[in-house]
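Progress note, sequence design subtask.
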């Protein structure tokens, strides 16, 4: 490799709420010569980023377009409602959507849930982002429903959350353009699936080509068995060997 050549890298996108540290650590242990470049991307923009080839794969919120992407579902998150710490809802360990029917609920523009009809009473505005919505929750003017990972990511000391048992849930998966399943993508798939470094699945030593069985040379097998290789005499068989037949 010359000084002007760059070593190949693996570009991994991830949406807020995903913590890729474990997989990154394993990658660095197994492929120390191939840098892994992380890019955080808003959930709504992950699709476009991968389609544009700006990342090789990404941890995204499912579903994705399966006509274009391959995807591996990884886990499903609990859904929670974020409330001020002194809110009456904190008296319960978990709540239902019916418990929130009379509450003002903010529905930010980057909401990861595809609601048919958002629960609760609508807020006076639709905040641009989830952090903006949490500012309004902290101001005690409404509540917010999010995946638990986002509640943890944007944690504030003056807010807490409770599980909403019957709310929609968000699934996290690894996705990549199906037509761009490179060797590095296969390597990362193996890491995410928990394959060991010596696993026979995924990328590895290609199988050896089948070798055609050589046919023995004509008569070779007969020579090994002690059988004569010449053509038998055409005369009639019978009688004792060594004695000529009597003419009639």
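Output:
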């Amino acid at each position: 490799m010359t000084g002007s050549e760059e070593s190949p890298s693996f570009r991994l996108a991830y949406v807020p709420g995903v913590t890729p540290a474990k997989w990154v650590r394993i990658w660095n242990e197994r492929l120390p010569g191939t840098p892994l470049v992380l890019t955080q991307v808003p959930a709504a923009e992950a699709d476009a980023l991968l389609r544009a080839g700006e990342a090789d794969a990404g941890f995204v919120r499912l579903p994705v377009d399966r006509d274009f992407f391959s995807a591996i579902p990884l886990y499903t998150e609990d859904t929670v409602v974020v409330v001020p710490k002194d809110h009456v809802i904190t008296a319960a360990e978990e709540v239902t959507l019916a418990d929130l029917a009379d509450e003002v609920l903010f529905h930010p523009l980057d909401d990861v849930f595809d609601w048919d009809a958002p629960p609760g009473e609508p807020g006076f505005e639709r905040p641009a982002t989830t952090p903006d919505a949490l500012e309004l929750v902290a101001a005690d003017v409404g509540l917010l429903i999010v995946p638990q990972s986002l509640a943890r990511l944007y944690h504030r000391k003056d807010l807490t959350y409770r599980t909403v048992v019957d709310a929609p849930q968000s699934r996290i998966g690894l996705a990549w353009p199906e037509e761009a399943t490179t060797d590095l993508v296969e390597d990362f798939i193996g890491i995410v699936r928990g394959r060991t470094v010596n696993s026979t699945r995924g990328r590895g030593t290609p199988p050896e080509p089948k070798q055609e069985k050589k046919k023995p040379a004509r008569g070779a097998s007969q020579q090994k068995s002690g059988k004569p290789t010449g053509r038998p005499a055409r005369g009639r068989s019978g009688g004792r060997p060594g004695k000529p037949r009597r003419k009639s």
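Residues 134 and 144 are 7 Å apart (CA to CA). Work on this subtask will continue into the next period as scheduled.
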